[in-house]
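Example 4.3 (complexes with small molecules)
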Amino acid sequence: MKLFLKLLTLSSLNFAIFAEIYNFPSNFVWGAASASYQIEGAWNVDGRIPSIWDTASHKNNSSVVDGSTGDDAAMSYYYYEKDIQALKDIGFKTYRFSIAWPRVLTKTNQVNQAGIDYYSKLIDRLKEEEIKPMVTMYHWDLPQYLQDLGGWTNPAIVKYFEHYADTLYKHFGDRVKEWITFNEPATFCDGGYSWGWHAPEIRTEKQIGGYLCSHHILLAHGAAYHLYKNKYFADQQGKVGICLNTGYSFPANENVTDEHVDRAMHFGLGRYANPIYSVDGDYPRVMREAIDQKSTDEGRRWSRLPHFTTAQVESLHGAADFLALNYYTSSLIQPYSHLGWNPADSDSEIHSFHDDNWKRSSSSWLVSVPEGLYHLLLWIKDNYNNPLVYITENGWSDLPMTIEDDGRVEYLREHLAAMSRAITDGCRVETYTVWSLTDNFEWMRGYTERFGIYAINFTDPERKRIPKNSVDLMKQVVRDNFVEVEKD
Ligand code: PNW
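Answer. The structure with 4-nitrophenyl beta-D-glucopyranoside bound is encoded below.
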């Protein structure tokens, strides 16, 4: 026992000597994030109608690797008190969750009172515990009947979304002051409508579906933003933003120029951010010109990248009070021309890949590149006139029931340090919500990859939330408002 204590003091002494400390502003807000389909379960309860993820996960030979579904998931529809307790135990002051469109509106666009009641209760309880609700309106669970009309490729969806947003402002806007219209269109537009990796699993030639989707997402975001400003802001005084995800693009070698880096960033982040946050508005010029030209070369009389009208450009321009940013990972990039590849394969003509030295998680796409977060935040500051940024997702995956989640602890320490450095260098980051509060349904990876800072055993009927080591880290960070990173 004594020896053990001694070792402990020794090692904490070492730590004090060989650790660097990164501070955060005193008003910085810490929290955790989740999404309705990934945690709620109760998929056919109290009038909830089917979503595209019910369809994708229920079909024979579904693409979900372990054949699982979100039918029950973390059962947060029943156990939301456990989520609130988990947030409280850490001292988190904000909770980013999403509202399920299929729970609050019926097929005929009537309000489903039971759905409203559920979120109302959740919001009230959070507020009682002094945890700010930050609500994502759309985290991928589109009502299936809307997909049957073409989903995000049908221009009519813009009006449907506006009506849905109106319903949310009306019922919850007295208590919710931070609204995120969409989560990661870069993931679900091309994933869902270009490559078929995500629900509704549609594949289209040359990203035609994905470009239509992102176009309508932007218009729907603009409609929801202006609806809030015109109809609700005077009373409710909240903020509306959109959640975008990207990594940073690092030059793979000395032949890759800054121009290549910018091109990669504009085709990735700029496709969504430029129309809203840039100085000029509209799609990034490099993207506009490249895709118009390619479309002509392909013999089309229209561009695969739709055009905004002048009025639409103006209405989208500046249509956000903050940028919600999800950051997980980054890439090395190299132009196709250096590789002698066929430019027809991708509109950006930029190849991206991982450095073999980057630490790998349990998800094939996720490697640890904390420097990427730092550079990304500075790129955003320089290109979009230093917007207010909330980091709304950042996290690490491991295997089920990894309670000693040292990989996650290290990842979080290094990313929080990178965020602190960016703030020191002038970036306006004011909130951080870790992905994710609990283990949950990780889309096509089912329950095989785990992102929670609380573990869940999905065969436990009680779905106990079991703190991993990263919970201790977050407690310390919330308490002290600094993070320590070991130096080697
Ligand atoms: C995000 N990528 O998705 C989502 O917002 C969450 O719902 C999800 O659980 C979480 O990150 C972890 O995957 C992403 O390939 C999916 O770069 C894929 C990528 C990034 C984010």
